[in-house]
């Protein structure tokens, strides 16, 4: 909205003319606005959306975060790998709802030598990407698919010669963010017709990030989790059920530069977008 008080400061630089003065018959400012007041909006900005996120700890609400749902996710990854786990107080989805990791063999190659994921200030996509398939959903039911990343333990790690080892206590947990798949909400038939890719997830170490990327600490271990929620829309307060899934192959360590040369070579071999790596880049380690 244009504000005439700002014209003297910014107007001349952009060749902007001040607005025409209003005719005397135009209603007075205060009277005009009073007739169109919305009392429910007259609250501090920090409290304006409390009703949508009643189940979230206020400390977890970050400016610029991707749209959040009233999830009450468990604090740690103490989940049975490959088994559905309820992420909230809502009832679980039927037992025939299944999820499988589509690119499991690729993940297993990285897991065997210790998967590392680059995190940057601007955000970096994951490789391997998370690609799953689901079954057992009601074709006409509406579902929301989400993903988050949780710490595996309370340790910070360091690369020591040819292996990773703990090097102290983990840094304080960062406010958590949830990635909502852009197709959400969609009917079960949509989710089941083809593999679902979470390749747009970006990881960052910028604690002031306002792009909605997942914020992680470097040199820590994380576990991706995937959640299926039956709901009519992202902000729905009435859920028809929810279940979470994890896969042991997807554990990874965050780094700002690859530490294990085997990881670098495997990414060059399997990632078509990683051909820019060079041998001299292997020495640039944190």
From TrEMBL:
Q: Give UniProt keywords alphabetically.
A: Developmental protein, DNA-binding, Nucleus, Transcription, Transcription regulation
Record flagged with keyword tRNA-binding:
no
Pfam families reported for this sequence: T-box
Q: Where is this protein found?
A: Nucleus
Record-linked SMART domains: TBOX
**Do you know which CDD domains this protein is assigned to?**
T-box_TBX6
- Gene3D superfamilies in the record, alphabetically? Transcription factor, T-box
Per UniProt, residues of the T-box domain are 101-279
The molecule here is called: T-box transcription factor TBX6
Which species is this record about? Staurois parvus
